[in-house]
Amino acid sequence: MVDIHFSLSDRIRYYWPHPRIRQSVEKLIANLNNVTLPLD
């Protein structure tokens, strides 16, 4: 099961360079920085 997790999670490295993916992640981080997440 661990091998499957790492092989699937490793695939993201192929998508990071794409402009739409990068912009989406930047927007996600910006949106998360503007809210307080409940920790309870």
From TrEMBL:
<dbReference type="InterPro" id="IPR012062">
    <property type="entry name" value="GatZ/KbaZ-like"/>
</dbReference>
<dbReference type="Pfam" id="PF08013">
    <property type="entry name" value="GatZ_KbaZ-like"/>
</dbReference>
<keyword id="KW-0456">Lyase</keyword>
<dbReference type="GO" id="GO:0005975">
    <property type="term" value="P:carbohydrate metabolic process"/>
</dbReference>
<dbReference type="GO" id="GO:2001059">
    <property type="term" value="P:D-tagatose 6-phosphate catabolic process"/>
</dbReference>
<dbReference type="GO" id="GO:0009025">
    <property type="term" value="F:tagatose-bisphosphate aldolase activity"/>
</dbReference>
<protein>
    <submittedName>
        <fullName>D-tagatose-bisphosphate aldolase, class II, non-catalytic subunit</fullName>
        <ecNumber>4.1.2.40</ecNumber>
    </submittedName>
</protein>
